[in-house]
Amino acid sequence: MKISALKLALLSATMATGLLAPQAFAKPITDADRAQILKAVEADAPQIRDAALKIWSFAEVGYQETKSTALLQGQLKAAGFDIKAGVAGEPTAFIASFKNGVGPVVAILAEFDALPGLAQTADPVKTPIPGQIAGHGCGHNLFGAASVGAAVALKEWMVKNNVKGELRVYGTPAEEGGSGKVYFVRDGLFNDVDVTLHWHPANANSAVQGVSMANISGKFRFRGVSAHAAGAPEKGRSALDGVEVMDVAANFLREHTPDKTRIHYVITSGGSAPNVVPDFAEVYYYVRHPDPAVVKDVWARVEKAAEGAALATGTTVEKEITGGVYALLPNDTLGRVMDANLRKVGGITWTPEEIAFAKTLQTSLVNPPSIDTVKTIEPYKVELEGGGGSTDVSDISWVTPTVGLGTATFVPGSAGHSWQNVAAAGASIGVKGAVNAAKTLALTGADLFANPDIVKKAKAELDQRRGPNFTYKAMLGDRPPALDYRKPANAGARE
């Protein structure tokens, strides 16, 4: 589908769901239900905090989150959920389920992977942690902990009120570049899910439903011939030369790609000593665009750049796609329900100590906004433009109605994937935002169980947004999960 057609489909679906008209549903949950659920989340707040801070300290990268997943699975099992571990070919993935008769199947997503290179203490000044390789610069320690907390509270409400349906928590590893959720979708693990809920740590409180960018990522491994760089350079064929020629070709390619294309790369291995011609080098690439078809086309051209670089430098190159995701499909029907519940929960109030933390941290930022924004809820809307990042939640949004929110877990003005976010995610302000998210998720889940008409309307909107005759096909093909994508580049690797 061309991007113009995709926009048209999104616009027509938004109009069809009545963006400017409030939704009215027949059987909303009562104030007593809401009070019961909010009380349950508050009671579970210490456990949310404990899980969030422990996972923050583990700081495990994609597909290596053994301690993090064990902690979350343990909490869910203790709360009465049945656990299936190691699903979708991913050792750290799991599905936790509580079923009470026939009714809607509602899924809540839980992430828990960290980012490499962002080890930072929970202090408002830059203080790296020696010897630690990663940090939670995207706040996934909060994400997983709050999602589990929401599920525990929601399950308690279902039991007390004999609410019919099935509640699941999907423990999804390796969101950061590993496309962990894609394998869940590809294996059909969302086929019977009626609605999927998620959230994400953010700088503000918002249930705005937006789009994202489709993405393909992968590694190019060049192999050459080592030699003494001074004594016998003519005998060498530099694998690093292959990487650098490829990078030059890819950079020239930027001028001739469709608008909004993004190409990023990092050299993950380039040799060990200047006087040795490297016989192995590796570069890691991302290609993004709102339209998956454009991503595939540009990625093919990047592969040609790699082949040409190998030919030019007398080396060989191996290509491996390690990740690939769709663009996110928003759902206005669900977005309005989520927004209403976020407004019932309200904004966040910081203590004097938390305000001091935030103000100190903001001295490292350029023109930061007021910290008072964490007290408010952003106006609701559906955004059909923007979305500079990518997420594997997107693939889920093409097979089941999906809705998310963000809460203020970070200091306003902080950049994503930054040491500032790591610090906040390990501090009390991060936990406060996570508890707000848990409350909103639990209330929204209750609305869905209580009123199947919402689910029916959300499914109709999904059908309209994705168009007729849609068949899901993963961007990353039929490869198994790239379980080693976060491990250091290895000249002997044959992944």
CATH superfamily of the largest domain: Zn peptidases
Main β-sheet: number of strands, strand sense, barrel status?
6 strands, mixed
Oligomer: single chain
Apparent shape: globular
Estimated structural class: alpha/beta
Gyration radius, rounded: 23 Å
* Sequence stretches where pLDDT stays below 50 over 5 or more residues: 1-6, 8-26
**Major sheet: arrangement of strands:** 1-2-6-3-7-12
How does CATH name the architecture of the largest domain?
3-Layer(aba) Sandwich
Give the averaged pLDDT, no decimals.
Answer: 92
N-C termini distance: 32 Å
CATH class of the largest domain: Alpha Beta
Examine the coordinates and then state which fold CATH places here, giving the name of the CATH topology of the largest domain.
Aminopeptidase
Share of residues in strands: 15-25%
Signal peptide: 1-26
Pfam families: M20_dimer (PF07687), Peptidase_M20 (PF01546)
Protein name: Amidohydrolase
Domain Peptidase M20 dimerisation: 216-309
